[in-house]
Amino acid sequence: MARLLKGAEYLISEATKDDVFTPEDFTEEQRQIAETAEQFAESEALPAEHALEQHEPGVAAALMRKAGDAGLLMIDAPEAYGGLALDKATSMLAAERMGTGGAFSVSYAAHTGIGTLPLVYYGTDAQKDRYLTKLVTGEWAAAYCLTEPEAGSDAMGGKATATLSPDGKHYLLDGTKQFITNGSFANLFTVFAKVDRKHFTAFLVERTFPGVTVGPEEKKLGIKGSSTTSVIFESAKVPVENVLGEIGKGHKIAFNVLNVGRFKLGAAVTGAAKLALATGAAYANARKQFGTPIARFGAIREKLADQAAAVYASESLIYRLAGLIDDRLATIPADQPGYYEAYQQGIEEYAIECAIAKVFCSEVLADVVDEVVQIHGGYGFIQEYPAEKYYRDERINRIFEGTNEINRLLVPGTILRRALKGELPLQREVMKAMDALMNPSLDEADPAVPFAAEKATVANLKRAFLVVAGAAVQKYGEALKDEQEVLLALADVAIQAFAAESVVLRAEKTASTQPEARRALAAAAVKVHTFAAAEKAATAARRAAFYVGEGDTLTILLGGIRRFSKYDAAGLLQAKRRLADAVLESERYPF
């Protein structure tokens, strides 16, 4: 039975295979929902891509209604309002499969995530009665209005205002929201504004309210088929009963819902990476150079192998996190007072892991599509081939839901804040890691234990994070929160440790239930990914060491990092060739 682990606890404790949820654990019902989402993406969303890119009126709204008819909009909503109230693993699975649906996957994710969840989590019964049923059926589409022309990452710096009308019946909203997904066809906006210029508050704003104007479509680099507009509020009349949550507590809604948005984005880009990988494999098999399919060339095969292992890691990470959140949410009685407040606290517990998912998975997709373009050669630059579109569409994912830089800063920043509050015994673990650094053990991994070398490497990557983080705290103290270069480097070590552990535990957990060929393929993915993770973590840790250490301290840190990032990757080439064979034979992601 899985333990109920806290957020960031992975850094200071050894998880076991029984602590993780994996894609191999899906129920038949979950697989059916996944199939529904995949079929919708293939048969409805992709055929409409050209019409969506031309922004033909009514197309996106009609697709949203069809998604509602297919039951794909009700997964996260409570049953009392027509929803299914399913777990996060199912929600992420639907998001992943819809991630293959081109630009509509962006509209879908915005609607079901940041568009609908503020109402689900914070809405009153009357607000849910009025709006939620329309959203889960697709009759209405939803959008989320947080970003402003001068307030992107600094969301709390927004200038939109809300002033109570003289009769006390309305709030008058003034301001402009920028880059609003689904802006052109959304019926309901969750809008953030400052009451009396100081109390950051959320409002439910209908498109037809007086004073609401939607701007023209932005001309974008990618995801051209999704709607992105500004929304302008000029003394927009919003009934007082449409305040969402409490006045002055809008930041709770904004940031808590973004945790799920980041998580869901991680799932969606994992689906997109699988599609791109399949496209690259099919092209490699078909394209000939020097009279030979380029799929036979080691240079191409290594690209496919590396990216297959990276997608395996992305998938492993996403569903491990889904399991963590679902296990915690399952402890909250649905009939308890303040259920959704406790529910949100349960998700917020894993804010660090949600940020990790957003960063890691979006960068996996970036690497995959970059290599798919490279595999296509000159044709990867031509619009007739899908690689060009994958490349353009990918780029926004490292900006959406908080830039990857902001999310990276959040990882060590939140870890250190929790440590200072006594919620995470970081200092004790730093001391243990320093002891391991100063008194190296001669123990070697037992080859009889499955993935012993990889587990040892994961444990050591965590030690690398702890010793460098400890040195950073010792040098900067509380001022570390302002040393962004150091925090970014620490984040990369923490991210790689979580991803590598997710891969190892998944492979170990599924080994006893999978056929020999599948076990061997998973073992190959583990080896390829662990090697890459150790190299990336070592580079980041060394960078941090040079930022925080000098003299003898620096020498000790660098020696420890060298030892903590050591991984015996014997058989790496054979592992890559096994993965490449599987990808090319099936012309798809092979797991």
UniProtKB/TrEMBL annotation:
Residues 248-411 form the Acyl-CoA dehydrogenase/oxidase C-terminal domain. Keywords: FAD, Flavoprotein, Oxidoreductase. Residues 143-235 form the Acyl-CoA oxidase/dehydrogenase middle domain. SUPFAM superfamilies: Acyl-CoA dehydrogenase C-terminal domain-like, Acyl-CoA dehydrogenase NM domain-like. It comes from the Bacteria. It comes from Anaeromyxobacter dehalogenans (strain ATCC BAA-258 / DSM 21875 / 2CP-1). The keyword Kinase does not apply. This is Acyl-CoA dehydrogenase domain protein. InterPro entries: Acyl-CoA-dh-like_C, Acyl-CoA_DH_CS, Acyl-CoA_Oxase/DH_mid-dom, Acyl-CoA_Oxase/DH_mid-dom_sf, AcylCo_DH-like_C, AcylCo_DH/oxidase_C, AcylCoA_DH/ox_N, AcylCoA_DH/ox_N_sf. It catalyses: a 2,3-saturated acyl-CoA + A = a 2,3-dehydroacyl-CoA + AH2. Gene3D superfamilies: Acyl-CoA dehydrogenase/oxidase, N-terminal domain (1.10.540.10), Butyryl-CoA Dehydrogenase, subunit A, domain 2 (2.40.110.10), Butyryl-CoA Dehydrogenase, subunit A, domain 3 (1.20.140.10). Residues 27-139 form the Acyl-CoA dehydrogenase/oxidase N-terminal domain. The keyword Flavoprotein applies. Residues 460-563 form the Acyl-CoA dehydrogenase-like C-terminal domain. GO terms for molecular function: acyl-CoA dehydrogenase activity; flavin adenine dinucleotide binding. Pfam families: Acyl-CoA-dh_C, Acyl-CoA_dh_1, Acyl-CoA_dh_M, Acyl-CoA_dh_N. PANTHER family: ACYL-COA DEHYDROGENASE, ISOVALERYL-COA DEHYDROGENASE, MITOCHONDRIAL-RELATED. Belongs to the acyl-CoA dehydrogenase family. Its cofactor is FAD.
